Request: fold
Amino acid sequence: MADDLLFSSKLDRILRLNHRLTMLINNLAQKTGDIDITQEVKNLLKQLYDSFSRLSDVLSRNLRCLAFLLPTYQALRQLPSCGEFVAARLLLFTGWTFTQAPGLKLKYKGEVVQETKPLHEFIADLDDALLEPLTKMWELSQSRERFDWIYTDFNITHYDEMSEALALSPQELKDLDGIRGPIPRWDCGEQDWDDFEWKEKGSDGPLNDLLEYNYRDDDAPDVNFANNFHIFRRSHQFCLDARQKSEAHIGRQQHQIFDDVARHLGLPPEMRNRILSYVEYRDPFPYLEKIDLAEAYVPFPKVGEHCTRCGAIEGESTAQRTCPQKAIHVWNLALRRFHTFHRNSCKQWSLCTQHDCTGHHDDEEDWEVAGEPEFTRYLESLAARGNDEFASLDQVGLGPMHPIRLEVEADTAREYALFGGNGIYGDSSDDARMIGGLGGLKDAMIHGRTLITAWEGYDDDSIFYVGAQAWEPSWQYGRNLYDEKVATVVIKRLHSEDECESCVEAEEQFDEFPLISV
Reply:
């Protein structure tokens, strides 16, 4: 009882302070003209960081407190010139302090899906909040922002680090030597062929942090299992995507400007091409070429709230079952789009055909993906959004490898090149798994696994044999474990062996998690 009163008192003090600081930020944001508010902004930021550093233990005990902090982030975003940057930095700091909280409970037993739901949804909300300033900065930069400043350690444990925290722009942070994290490689063509022994000298900061928790299964009470997940999964992917597009955008502009000047000066083509060979850039992953990142990376749709329309409908109907407040939305990391799921007339979860589904469908036949070839058409229509030149999943880099099976030696080399990246090549390997591995995205979705090896050949006795191995699918990201499970199970049910051209029997190198029915 005494601990509860102490916690309540601490929470009240912090929230009242944050409310006061938020009001001051709002007042500061309304100042116009040539007034220099730099020092005032830094003074308020210092107080905010001091307040938020004491907030970690509060958040670890009451995850719903994040809702009370959102107005503070929104207020910071209104500050002229620096708002989006400082809001994003404070959100990163919130994530870091949360993972360091001494009172954070990361051990569960029994119903792990239900018990971890508040934790997963808190992290998803924090991720959504960070995406807002990041996507706005991307729009304002006209596809030039590289987000170098976001890949760095962000620990405020002594006074020297406070000056970095109070930086009001990426350039100011760079001048303070505050950008120290490694620049990640993203291109699957960049392969870790040299077999280096990588040593970690720093980190990519909170953006790439993992949160791990332990749980016990009722069937194995003496064994501790572990699960981990990114605390800023979508924001991390967004920044990697932005890097690809910005590098290509800036590189093409540089080539075009040089080419125009060189032609004007009358330089011969051979000399122009030789000079341009020193100004290299990489094209983005084919699927990203046409996608509008700011339009794609929207927040998770809100669910679980009261629906006035359903209250006026008598009896059970398709419109009620497909109410948007009862839906499940799961983010496809490879497509950068949401899938929506409703319950059908048999009370089973089913995939909805509509993009950006608003729910309340009148007829089940109008929304439910029942099988093939309907699922393929749906997947291709989702991938084609915003791309008038879309022809197939293969064309945009989401199809299967050709050929799937190789001789053992070649297959081993391929596995290492695609999935064995270490150090700065880790992001490339993660992307290769995310888009479906050897089988491509559709194959990973309908088979519920990611194909990583597939070989054929003759053994020492000249007997022909084949084999394959697979890891867990990694295309799905939901607000909680149950939602992710629904997505993988429902789509796997759409698989038809009679119509499947890519069935490869593979040895699964993973344990199913979580073990629940949907």
